[in-house]
Amino acid sequence: MKSLTITASHTPAGPALEVVGDLDYTNARRLRHAAQETDLSPGRFLVVDLSELRFCDSSGITALIAVRNHAVAAGTEVVLVAVPANTRRLLHMTGLDQVFDIRDDVTSLPGR
After folding, report:
1. Residue 92 in 3-state DSSP?
2. pLDDT of residue 110 exceeding 80
3. Which of 31-38's residues contact partners 24+ apart within 8 Å by CB, and which partners?
4. Domain count for the chain
5. pTM beyond 0.90, yes or no
6. Nearest to 5 by CA among 16, 14, 23, 13
7. Dist. CA 91–CA 78, nearest whole Å
8. DSSP class of residue 2?
9. Which part of the chain is the STAS domain (predicted)?
10. Residue 86 neighbours by CB distance under 10 Å
């Protein structure tokens, strides 16, 4: 297993969280906490960059849902960027690909 790092930054579309490593039951709460610590503004996007995500279990999926719920409550939309094939498959199998805005890369974000 690879440890998890979450790096906060800013994009023209809004704040971003880059998730690197394994998102699983041992650390999913860290993603929730990172989203709660992010300054979210109505009408903006919270970009979650998953390009370096190596593994995601059901706890990770639950954390992504919690991040989305937190953002929606703040009037912000969540965009998942560069979702790895295995995680995209999980999102598709659970129907969450219809709930999340999923983009191939950051160049397709508004404001870019």
Report:
1. helix
2. no
3. 31/4, 31/6, 31/60, 31/63, 31/64, 31/66, 31/67, 32/63, 32/66, 32/67, 32/70, 34/6, 34/8, 35/66, 35/67, 35/70, 35/71, 36/70, 37/8, 38/8
4. 1
5. yes
6. 23
7. 14
8. P
9. 4-112
10. 11
By residue count, the chain amounts to: 112
pLDDT in tens, 35-72: 999 999 999 999 999 999 999 999 999 999 999 999 99
Give the 3-state secondary structure of residue 8.
Answer: strand
Domain that holds residue 23: 5-108
DSSP 103: E
Q: Which residues contact 47 (CB under 8 A, 6 or more apart)?
A: 11, 13, 14, 15, 16, 17, 79, 81, 106, 109
Amino acid in the structure at residue 96 = L
**Is the model's pLDDT at 112 over the cut of 60?**
no
CATH number of the domain that 92 lies in?
3.30.750.24
How does pLDDT run across 74-83, given as a tens digit for each residue?
Answer: 999 999 999 9
**Paired tokens of 63:** 């954390």
